[in-house]
User: What shape does this take?
Amino acid sequence: MNVHQTAKFQVQEGYLEECVAAINEFVAYVHGNEADTLLYTSLQQKDDPTQFIHYFIFKDETARDIHANSEAVKRFTGTLYPRLVSPVEFTEYSLLTSTQPAP
Assistant: This one.
């Protein structure tokens, strides 16, 4: 069963450019190296560019575990987490309905 999850966070203003670069690099890594991460999207809030929501879909729990324990996640969070206003808020969801076919 697919795992749908979000991660909401706010970057400290002085670190925005550095964190955006880290996000872009990380998402490119996920795209090229994690076939069972079916979607990884980073959204930046329009009226406050320090606010982000990441939305991801994993094929299953195994895919989430592989992602969460990867060296790429360790590097990414090592850059991102010290530059956040507060800890990341993770939320898991169940798919209700979508215009997209189920992966």
Remarks:
- The chain has one domain: 3-93.
